Amino acid sequence: MKILLWASLLAASTALIAGCHGGDPAATSGTIQTMQARVVESQQQQLLQSLKSTGTVHAKETAVVSAQVMGRIQQVLVREGDSVRAGQTLVVLDDAALRSQVEQGQAGVKAAQNAQAAAQTNAALAASTLDRYKQLESEKSVSPQEMDEVSRRAEAAAANLEAVRAQTDAARAQESGARTMMSYTRLVAPFAGVVTARLADPGTMAAPGVPLLQVDQAGALQLDATVDESVIGAIRKGMKLTVEVNGAAATGSVAEIVPAADPSSHSFLVKIDLPSSSQTRAGMYGTAEFANGTRQAILIPRSAVVARGSLNCVYVLDGQGIAQLRYLTLGAAQGNLVEVLSGVSAGEKLVDLPSDRELAGKRIQTSTGVRP
Questions:
Q1: Mean pLDDT split into 10-residue runs, the chain, 372 residues
Q2: What is the rounded CA–CA span in Å between residue 324 and residue 328?
Q3: Collapsing DSSP states into helix, strand and coil, what is residue 102?
Q4: Alpha carbons 162 and 235: distance in angstroms, whole number
Q5: How many CA atoms lie within 13 A of 325 on its CB side?
Q6: pLDDT value, residue 22
């Protein structure tokens, strides 16, 4: 009996509560909150497609200074970072042995000149004697044998003079060669520039072809970038492009395209002229952006993107204007717009400037719309 009594009382209470609220449908179903917000629309646009390539900054001309003769280094007159002018002495080698060769050459030239002077005197005497004998021969005052002997002596004297002259020329050439070799003991800058590497110190032995210094030419720099063979056809000499060095963007110009590809990587070397900048140095890494056709992309304003931890999302309006939170995969920024790789289709309406408001499930009443 007690169980039946409690069941009756519970049923009566339930009926009473239902009767109090039965006339308000909104109370049973709940209301959707309405909020004011600006709405924008995602758009599909055609974007320029590009390829980024990294490279290294170089001077337009770089010279590796090395010795042409064997010798001990006496002086290295510059260090890394020093500015040099064309023809400035950079390294001095010991020239004692070569100086001795020059002195020997000078002595040889002097001896040859003395021998030539004596030969000229003999040749002149022989020639004048031959002239007198020719006069006597016309007067029938000399025998044919005497005439032959005088003629032969004149010819021999002339031949000896020519030989001595050749020896004098050889001695002069030997002296000149010794002087040239001695000049190689002073290594000079091939052009105005900056010393970028010092590879030897005084006291070490210099050998032909062994680098001692590196000098980069003063003036504008170049970025040497490698480009895949699939896009090399779109690159032409003189083409302008965006480059970035040391975090600073600038406009460069294609100066040279090396016509032969690297057989191992199938890539081409492209040299890009850089604008003058006090912040750019040889050896820095840089990035060049080459145009590579166009593509279709979906863009939305960056102001519509909300960060949820490490994820990006937007509020998308459905057909009834209800905001739904949707996560995105974003691409590169395009000014005040950003590319959407996935998560939003073209033509969808998004809440702009949502800030920290929780808008999911709320009806958005549109204020002034802004299209990207």
A1: 36 36 40 90 88 88 92 94 93 91 90 91 89 83 84 90 92 90 92 91 92 90 88 87 88 91 88 86 87 87 92 93 94 91 94 90 74 43
A2: 13
A3: helix
A4: 66
A5: 13
A6: 38
Angle between helices 144-183 and 96-138 (to 10 degrees): 160
Q: What is the spatial distance between Cα 64 and Cα 77, in angstroms, rounded to a whole number?
A: 16
Contact yes or no for 315/301 (Cβ under 8 A):
no
pLDDT attached to residue 318: 92
Q: Give the long-range contacts of residues 320-327, CB within 8 A, separation 24 or more.
A: 320/363, 321/363, 321/364, 321/365, 321/366, 322/32, 322/361, 322/362, 322/363, 322/364, 323/37, 323/351, 323/359, 323/360, 323/361, 323/362, 323/363, 323/364, 324/360, 324/361, 325/359, 325/360
Q: Which residues contact 149 (CB under 8 A, 6 or more apart)?
A: none
Residues in contact with 319: Cβ distance below 8 Å, sequence separation at least 6, in sequence order: none
> Residue 17 has what pLDDT?
34
Contacts of 79 (CB under 8 A, 6+ apart): 195, 198
What's the CA gap between 332 and 340, in Å, rounded? 8
CA distance 120 to 126: 10
Token digits of residue 18? 């239902």
pTM confidence score: 0.55
pLDDT value of position 276: 83
Give the model's pLDDT for residue 367.
Answer: 67
- Alpha-carbon Rg for the chain, nearest whole angstrom, is 47
Q: Which helix (H) or strand (E) holds 160?
A: helix 144-183
- Which pLDDT score is estimated for 30? 55
CB burial string 15-29: b at 16+ within 10 A, e below: eeeeeeeeeeeeeee
Residues with Cβ within 8 Å of 347's Cβ and at least 6 positions away in sequence, in order, are 41, 42, 43, 44
